[in-house]
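Action item from last meeting closed. Structure (127 res):
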C-alpha cells in the first residue's frame, strides 16, 4: 500500500490544482462580470445625470431667454408709452396755440369789421 499512496497524493494534488484553476477561472469570470455590470451601471448613471443636467440647463436657458424677451418687451412698451405721452403733450400744446391763434384772428377780424363800420363816419368827418 505504501507504493500506491504517493500516487494518490499526486492525483489528489493534481485534482486540487486543476480544481483551483477552475475555481480561480470561475471567480475571475464572476469578478469580471460583476465589474463589467458595475461599470455599465456607472456609465448608465453618468449618462442619466448628464441628460438630466442638460435638460436643466436647457430649461434654465429657455427661462433666461423668456425673461430677456419679457424685459425687452417691457422696455419697448415703456418707450412707446413715453413717446405717446410726449406726442399727446405736443398735440395739446399745438392745439392751444391753434386756439390762441384762432382767437387772435377772430379779434383782428372783429376789430377790422369795427374799423370798416367806422370808416364811413371818419371819411365824412374828414370831408
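Sequence:
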Amino acid at each position: 500500500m505504501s507504493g500506491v499512496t504517493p500516487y494518490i497524493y499526486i492525483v489528489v494534488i493534481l485534482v486540487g490544482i486543476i480544481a483551483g484553476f477552475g475555481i480561480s477561472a470561475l471567480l475571475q469570470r464572476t469578478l469580471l462580470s460583476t465589474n463589467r455590470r458595475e461599470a455599465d451601471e456607472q456609465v448608465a448613471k453618468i449618462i442619466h445625470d448628464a441628460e438630466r443636467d442638460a435638460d436643466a440647463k436647457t430649461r434654465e436657458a429657455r427661462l433666461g431667454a423668456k425673461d430677456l424677451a419679457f424685459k425687452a418687451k417691457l422696455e419697448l412698451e415703456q418707450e412707446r408709452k413715453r413717446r405717446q405721452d410726449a406726442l399727446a403733450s405736443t398735440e395739446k400744446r399745438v392745439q392751444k396755440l391753434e386756439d390762441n391763434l384762432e382767437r387772435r384772428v377772430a379779434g383782428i377780424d372783429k376789430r377790422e369789421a369795427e374799423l370798416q363800420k367806422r370808416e364811413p363816419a371818419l371819411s365824412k368827418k374828414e370831408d
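Note appended to the action item: Helices lie at 4-126.
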